[in-house]
Amino acid sequence: MAKSPSILHVQETGHRRVTVHNSHSEELVGVLHETNSPELVIICHGFKSSKDRIPMVNLAAALEKEGISAFRFDFAGNGESEGSFQYGNYRREADDLRAIVEHFHEEKRFIAAIVGHSKGGNAVLLYASRYKDVQTVINISGRFNLERGIEGRLGRDFKEKIKQDGFIDVRNRKGRLEYRVTEESLMDRLTTDTGGACQSIPKSCRVLTIHGTVDEMVPVEDAMEFAKNIPNHKLHIIEGADHEFTMHQDELASVVVAFVKEGLCGDYMAMPSESCKRTSGYIHSRF
Length: 287
Description:
Layout lengths: L14 E7 L5 E7 L5 E6 L11 H10 L3 E5 L16 H17 L3 E8 L1 H13 L4 E5 L9 H5 L3 H8 L1 E5 L5 E6 H8 L3 H7 L5 E7 L8 H9 L3 E6 L10 H17 L8 H5 L9
Parallel strand pairs: 3-4, 3-5, 5-6, 6-9, 9-10
Antiparallel strand pairs: 1-2, 2-4, 7-8
Helix pairs in contact: 1-9, 2-3, 3-7
């Protein structure tokens, strides 16, 4: 994943640290952008990333500005959360998300949307296919074809090497170990059926995929595959945007907020939500 700025400390009024235990008794750490709305949007980061990186922070702030509470958290083994980092781990990250959703359900919050960037996009889609209790899902720069992108990190001969040694160590430019890929974790990725999961998402679930045209990490063609396989899907392509929307943060936030509010204020709700009544300046979607 390309490097981007991080916001390491959250001290603003209305932001508080929340911890939740996953099904493996690991502590997941997140930051709640509290507006006192009953609705809540959960934001998931990507591969080797964290809750404190852009665009997660900017999306939470944009939702907060519109009066909608947001929660950004670290998957197990990432950021401040407990656990060891594991390559692959797609299903387990969907389980982490389940623990977060259940925690806020217990607090009587309505999950207005789940949003995932990059690998987090895969997590929210897997979640939607398995649990079917969230009506709005936003996939930002997710990868459809999980067989692609492996050679770039592990080398062209990764299959032979991992069979021979049982693992591959990925190192940075200075030669320092970043993480270890085991054969089991590699197979976790290769056996994750993205297409099958997408087709299992109920039609009652609204899914938005956002992708940039100059994404060098995940080709924009993957976004087209999501559009073909998800029953109730909208596609928004941002011209000139890279994988993390470095120069397109405002446009990304505008599209995400519009889609969330469309679900809260539009025909998808029997009654308009309190957040819809309370916030002003409705952002019209440009799909």
